[in-house]
Amino acid sequence: MSYKNPISREDPNAIEKLNLKLDECERLQDKMKEVNAYYRKYGKIEGCPALTTEEGLRLAEDMRRRYPIHTQPYPQYALTNNNAEIRRLKKRIEEISHDKEVGFVGWQFEGGEAVANDELCRLQLVFDEKPTEEQIYLLKLNGFKWSPNNRAWQRQLNQSAIYAADRLGFVKPIEGGRASALQPKIETKDKGGEAR
Question: What percent of the chain clears pLDDT 70, i.e. is strictly above it?
Answer without folding.
Answer: 90
